[in-house]
Amino acid sequence: MESEARTTVQSASGALAHLGFDQSSRPPAGAPGLRSSVVGAPSAVTGEMLADLRRSESDLRRFLHGLPGVDQVGAEARAASLGTRSIKTSAKLWALEMAVSMVDLTTLEGADTPGKVLSLCAKARRPDPGDASVPPVAAVCIYPDLVTVAKRALVGSGVKVASVATAFPSGRASLAVKLADVRDAVVAGADEVDMVIDRGAFLSGRYGLVLEEVQAVKEACGQAHLKVILETGELATYDNVRRAGYLAMVGGADFIKTSTGKVSPAATLPVALVMLEAVRDFAELTGALVGVKVAGGIRSAKDAIRYLVIVNETVGEAWLDPSLFRFGASSLLNDLLRQRSKQLSGVYAGSEDFSIE
Amino acid sequence: MSDERLAVRKTYKLYIGGAFPRSESGRSYVVVGSDGAFLANAAQGSRKDVRDAVVAARKAQPRWAGATAYNRGQVLYRVAEMLDSRRSQFAEAVASSEGTSQEEAAASVDAAVDRWVWYAGWSDKVAQVAGSSNPVAGPFFNFSVPEPTGVVGVVAPQASSLLGLVSVLAPVLLTGNTAVVIASETRPLPAVTLAEVLATSDLPGGVVNLITGRVAELAPVLAAHRDVDALDLAGAPASLLVELERAAVTNVKRVLRPGAAESDWTEAPTPRRMLAFLETKTVWHPIGL
Amino acid sequence: MTKSYPDHKSEGAAGAELARRDDATEARKRADAPGQPSPVEESGQLVAADRPDQVAFEYAPAPESRSVVHLQPSYGLFIDGAFVEPVDGNAYKTENPATEEVLAEIAAAGLEDVDRAVEVAGRAQKEVWGPMPGAERAKYLFRVARIMQERSRELAVLESLDNGKPIRESRDVDVPLAAAHFFYYAGWADKLDYAGFGPHPAPIGVAGQVIPWNFPLMMAAWKLAPALAAGNTCVLKPASTTPLSALLLAEIIQQADLPPGVVNVITGAGSLAGAALVAHPGIDKVAFTGSTEVGKDLQRALAGTGKHLTLELGGKAANIVFEDAPLDQAIEGIVNGIFFNQGEVCCAGSRLLVQESIADTVVERLKRRLATLRVGDPLDKNTDLGAINNAAQLEKIRELSDAGEAEGAIRWSPSCTLPSKGYWFAPTVFTNVSQVHRIAQEEIFGPVLSVLTFRTPEEAVAKANNTVYGLSAGVWTEKGSRILWMAGQLRAGVVWANSFNRFDPTSPFGGYRESGFGREGGRQGLGAYLDV
Q: What is the pTM of this model?
């Protein structure tokens, strides 16, 4: 199970539970190896320091503002350059199938019904009825009040149920309401919870509040995995994205996620690059491997492959796995299947060749 | 039975936001050639059409100004390529509108294309000529950059139906401004043909908007419009000039007055028409450790 | 660097996963296109070599097709609008440095050929090109720019074949910039009165232009475009190892119908054709880009002749990284600074000056980043680092790298299998370098970075300026005033702040001191070709 596979940072106890390796975690490929003392990192982070960050808002602010800045032009140029990688033939097929296995097949509409969710789940467990070798997706992503329906529909499939929570998408509600939202999802059986951070608190500098909420939600999640949505489109700058990402990770996130998909811009290649760099650096500082989910606006297989290239060349192979990288998407899935079928058959697929959800 | 093929006659519409609508007023007016013969029913634009055009021009302006100078130059140069390939069509439009001979019309069209090329080549140079770094007496880096003023209202020349039009329109565009053009009242056909070329070029919709109709009706609307940043009065009738300049005061428009008589558009231009629609932004930054 | 794939999943799921991957592998084998893998693919790829099963993200070969290029078996000189056999010269062969395959036979101009080229250029300048209205010269140059854009793929592939640089760079940098240079200067041809050189500035006459092998097409454009816009005619001598793109450019100039004699291309040896060209009395202006050593020879040869001269020579640029730099982008800037074009760049950031407080972290991150640099077939679209252009240069790089080791610097390269044929050098980083070391003073012109440290901005400036060169510098810091202060202090013709290796036809480029004099690009670039 994924929860054993990665070290996670424990909250509150003041000590890092897993620093270094347990047998099922490993350092990011390409990194010179994790060390418990950090060589030349922007600020060395031990278990004690993490506890300090959680206790003291001013320490937290100093830490976040002390992180190296992100030059927008440089970051975008790097992402664009990685986007020119030419992924063909066997590599393309591998990437397409990997991407399918990383999809969180999503429906987050006011008009969602049990019928819609049943249909989604059927697609999730068997994306291509005509081809059993297509892997199932990683998870479905839905609103909390439909978790029960989804759990039943996905029994025995290995597909996880991820629920949004915490007054998704705006996050504008009291902590009590947000936690109740989380508990509903968890009680109904959600394997994963996608929360939103309080962007208002973040943008007004109340980092401590943002952190407390992440920690509280993490606790309410119990065994469920926590993805923390940064809503990068509202954070506006890459510096903010980096800081919010760190905030979420210090707070115990298992995944950091770009967007709710309800605000534009949502996921972009440079935003993903910045988040993957943060995750890489955090792993080096603390030993914790945090995943990244890109969500919103990813419709084409070509884009999905570009994201995988960025993962590959930023954090390395370890993250090329559904336990550490996800695509939050709906129409992407069929484009992946279309491109896959073109790779295998040499012929372009028709518009009705794949089922809608 | 006539040997001559029956022509499919063109409808002359307005050009707003990249599309060709009729006037919202439903009016049209007769355009005749210099010999008095019927040429076309042109749309007779109204104040509401002007209003819509300004909205379109404003909407398109940030993106056009935000394109690189290189990109604007490429777009404009390609327009010149398209104009050049349609020389005979334009020559006919100019000849019938202005009553010139075919040779004179062709020469006028050639000059118009060359004029457009001259201006297209300025887009990535005007900042180097009009901008500067300034040696202030203190530890500051100080630089001045020219920036487009925004939406420019243009009253196109009345007599020179293509060369004059191009001479007033191209400098507005290369500098990153967008335009609302009132075409020559009696000779609008080359302008509408130009709009057709622009619509099929890489120029984004809304960067150029063209209204045909009565200048006396339309120019005051443009002059008084508070979302128009500058006004080119090249083709404004002399009797209206003072009124238009006064109307422009409402939002302190930059006004470019016409020459003493309508300019001899064949004369080589100066940077005047570009500088008229550029603001200068000067930035200071300390120099230190 | 590469590790075995972890199994996060439970037994049953893992078994299913492996079975699925086996099926997928079979499907992949079926799906593999019949296109041939590039000859250097197996040995050239850095990442995920020798993997038993494809569990990692291996990029399959993505070769750009050579078929867009139509290589002739032999090429003549381009004189007076036609390709002609040399009169008193002979021929030599140009090869693909990635494979040592012969590409074509090239004419080597002799003294009479040079003579003829200069003569026709002189006549064309006096009778045709000089008197021509600027607006017409402009239209010719616009045509050249447009045709270059139309034939861009052909030019890019040809450039990679002849030079060894990755297709991604020739496609995305060299060719677009070359076309843009023509486009920019075309627009100046009829606006010279506004260029700031006084009213009605006149051309100089005939320009003799000698260019290097590192950016063959781009250097040709940088030389020809401003010269022609200003009303001069040109005799261009491309580098002997990279004549092909200049010859294709000559073909494009023919297609654009430029009057004969306005542009002439004489291929051949620098020591013969090049020397004869610059010494020729019919040449009024010499423009040279190349090594400082040869530049000095040229300056000596021209002393007292009254010929106008501009030189663009070598460099040993400092790329200065402060502790408050945007770190990830700075790493990219360092990599780009020294490995772009295999480091065969006059303005390469060949000295990393890193603030001592972050030196370890920067070097660590740099090494990690270099593990994803792909060395291999220049025609593979995923290649980052191509071949060294010629055997002589490879030897120089080796010699200086060995010297670096001998003088006590610590040498490191990412693990990397180089092809057996062709001229290859692994990306190399030297740490523990001091100012006194040869590898800190001498231009290597290869993918070799020397890392030094500094403590304060003044020390960074002192070290950066402690060189006879002065072409370029990089400054990485988030503090605006420091960027401007550094820019003011650095003795370099180009300062890149939070960036590196950025070029634009509107942006003047050229050096201080022994990196040469004169500027190319921008309004200032016209100055070299006007008689003012």
A: 0.90
